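PT: before anyone asks, these are the final sequences, not the draft ones from last week. 992 residues across everything. Please model them as a single complex and drop the result in this thread when it's through.
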Amino acid sequence: MVEETLQRLQSQKGVQGIIVVNTEGIPIKSTMENSTTTQYANLMHNFILKARSTVREIDPQNDLTFLQIHSKKDEFMVAPDKVYFLIVIQNPTE
Amino acid sequence: MAPKAQKGKKPSGQKKEKGGKKKPKPLPDTEEEEPLNMESMGHPEIYPLVLTTKTQEIFNCRIDEDVTDEVPYKLIKKEDIFEDLQNRAAVSDFHPVKKIVREYPGDELLLVYDKDFKYGLNFYLIATEEGKENYLNPPELPPEEQEENKELIPEDIYIYHPPLSKPWVSLGSEKEIEEESVKESTKQITYMISRKRNQFGAPITFSDQNASSAKDAYIECTAYPDKNFTLKKLEKDIGMQVIPHIKDISTQTRWTYPKNATTQYHAREFSEEEREKLGKSKSLIDFLKKVSTSVEIALQQNEIMNTFIEDWRCLAEEEGAFGDKTDTHLKEYQSFTDLHSTTEKKITCISWHPVIYGLIAVSVAVRLSFEDRVHLSGKLLLQPSLILFWSFSDPIHPQLMLESPEDIFCFQFCPTDPNIIAGGCINGQIVLWDITAHADRIENIKASGRSKKVALKPMFLLEPESNKESIFIRHCAVSSIESGHKKIITDIQWLPDTFEINRMGFVYENRNGICCQLATCSADCTICFWDIRPQKPLTPQPTEKKKEESIEIPFDVPSTFLHLDLSWKPLAKIKLSKGETSLDHCPTKISLTEDHLLYKTQDKILAQTKSLKAGETSPYHNLEGGMTDHLKPLEDFCTKFFVGTEEGEVIYTDWKLERDPDTGRFMTKKPVNLYTVHDGFVHTVQRSPFYNDIVLTIGGWNVAIWKEGVMTGPLLQSCCAPKMYTSGHWSLTRPGVFYIGREDGYIDIWDLLEKTHEPALSQNICITMITYIKPWTFSPKQQFIAIADYYGTLHILEIPWTLSHPSVNEIASVNYYFEREVKHLEYVEQRKIIRDQEKKEMDLEMEKKKVKTYQKSKEQAEAELKMEYESYLELEKTTLINLGLAKVTEKVSYMDLI
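LR: through. Structure below.
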């Protein structure tokens, strides 16, 4: 079931990789190689927490639902949850 | 005034004292001055005088005559003196003593001659009677004293008379003395200081003492605030800042210096088992379920549209224009003239070297009419006709000179091998050159650092070997004179290397990969196709072969095309005939389906030449016979092409030969379409580099643009220009721009997107007719246009940015424009049909009307005829009367008639 979902996501156009991390930033599942996974997970983890804390500090009843970082070459999408984070890296074709 | 003199004087004064009598006379005293008297000498009565000779005469007291040493005096009467004073006034010598004389009590004054000048002047007057008496009558011993005086001084016994004390007579000098004298004001105090003797020189001891203890031990001058010097500050500048609460705390610690420390860490990871366990956990599944939807939406959104597009940036034109955007003129870059030639030459054709930067080849021909050519044919034979290679680095000496037997009127570099050049001559021959041997020379042309000692000699004196500057290269091969063209070759083109043609005009695939066929058109109304490969002869002719072999060739000519030399025959000939009439079309330019060189295939050529270099022998050196026998012809290849003729027609015809049903022979097809559009001969038939089916034709005084497939007419036909157009070319980078050269040396630049009825820009290049235009692009920034004129000068101009750089979507815009024109033509056609119909209808109506009017009754017609006849008679009568030929029946006055 997990695999199917990940496969489905992977088959989308332009997707480069998918990582599932827990709240501490340790990757659980990934479609990319190990070193890249670790790097992305560590870097994104701090960012996700910061974003979440920002949202909640402004309004404690608010919560982060989705996070997108659009860069020149790629796009990082993060879907946070209480326990896990899903990170997807896409290269949108222009 | 020695006392001695005083003493002496006293007695002598007493002796000599005399006075003159004087009568008091009242005299007006204008001046009263005190005369000088000898009071100082003790004789207040003596008044010294100066008596001039005149006065002496008057008063008879002339010196040494009346007044002598014995009797040195004279008694003068007062009256006489007054008289003299009156007579002589101020001039009189007695004037100073006038007052004295007046006051003189007696009558006579005594005037004494002062010989020794005792009193300063030569005479003196005694003013008192007493004095006079004393003088005259010196008491007691006058003569004796006189004598004694003379002898007294040495012998006299000086009797000392002690001074008699007299009572002091104060004259007021005591006061002065008192003032000047110094007296003690106060009594002088005397001190006596003593000290014990043993204390002298003893050591001194100092001791401290409190200053305040002893009275008056110190004097201080305390400072006190003086009100005159205090300023009260009334204004002060203060800065204030509100800052958050700050707390400064400092401590003293032991100072430590920074040290480098490292930490090595390893990212935490789950072990495989843990991962698997977690991977299967329900929480993960739930999570993914929840999250995947939104992620998918986001992913797809990105694919659909890029929300971060900057619309403004994409809308604007590309920036980074090089050069001034307002500069639209062609800038003169360089110009080349052949200074060697003796006769006047014109440039007939230009071609840029496809590969090498800055190398351009021009063909020059003698500027003579046919008659002159015949006249000077002997002289012309001596001068070789040339193709000159010019390089930007050397404007004086051409790099290479290709020799040909006759004047070349058109030539072209082979697209696949730039060292092969084919040219068409004025006599109908085709000439081939192979400059592979000199390829290095022209590739590495450096700036002219050559010696300028080589004088420019006329050509016929130069020998090719001694001229180190430029090399004459003899042609490799010429075509056969009998079987080729009979008249001047007007256009020569290499067929692209993608296909080849056989005798019948059938198209085959070109397996060689090189261009090996040429197409030429000439004034003898034929278009020929040539193949540069050795052809297998249809009938073996060994004897002729031997003859050919015995022809000697110069050793420096490469043997690439030896097989073709002088025996080259065209592969296929197409005659453009007009049917039964004898006059055939005279083609001037042809345009095949794909213009190879215009599509910049530089990269392709470069790749080929590189591979050639590696392989050492080019395929041109190993040409084999055509393989057309083995291949199947391509069916759906378009064999039609455009031809421009000398009469100004544009023909669209087919080169495929068709079988004539009557004779069974292969005949050229009739032209598909023929348009008479231009007024003069068509010199440019060119396909657009951007659109394969758009053809530009220029001839006479106008321009036409055609689209292949549209048979109704040209898409654009310009109106007649004031000056004849003599050359033209599409722009290589802008789809809607083309250049036209005029006969007065102007170049018209047309921009279809700007104006279609007249040129967008007109610029003067030279003074004479422009014979050829060829633009070329070296880089996106640098584009040149080569313009050749009638006087043999080649001008290279730089095309400005605005003309060379296409705007965004220009291709689409121009395409749209052409499509609109096509539609317009169709519409015109449609309208024609409609108009025809309308016209037909109108004619029918007219017919009907005529039929209606014809139905009149006969009687009416007769009545009308009669009326007409009568009116005619009237007219006749009046005319005759007016002419005076008929007699006037009524008696009308002569004047009325006139």
